[in-house]
Amino acid sequence: MKYMMFVCSDTEPDTDTSDKPDIERWVSENNANGRRLDGSVLAPTSVSTTVRVRNGRLLVSDGPFTESKEVILGYDLLECADLDEAIEVARAHPMSREGRLELRPLVDLPG
Description:
Elements: E1 2-8, H1 23-32, E2 36-41, E3 49-54, E4 57-62, E5 72-79, H2 83-91, H3 95-98, E6 100-105
Antiparallel strand pairs: 1-5, 1-6, 2-5, 3-4
């Protein structure tokens, strides 16, 4: 099953001062075992653009669609047997301690 893992900032990071997991090692291990299909860091929200159509009119604005202290920083596309495996993969990601990780299964659309 495929999961999109959103890597997000958090206003309440872990206060544990022990060694943090290494992101390069996490990426390398999960790429090698086929659980990470793709991933990237996103540019800051200061360079984002929001696009909407309302009553047939195109509305384009600078910045994120909401005002928030917590933002999506990046993503990883995972291939895991089930949610339990996806949770274990997320648990080992460095941002599980400094931010938060949101897992969402991908839905196969008909057609």
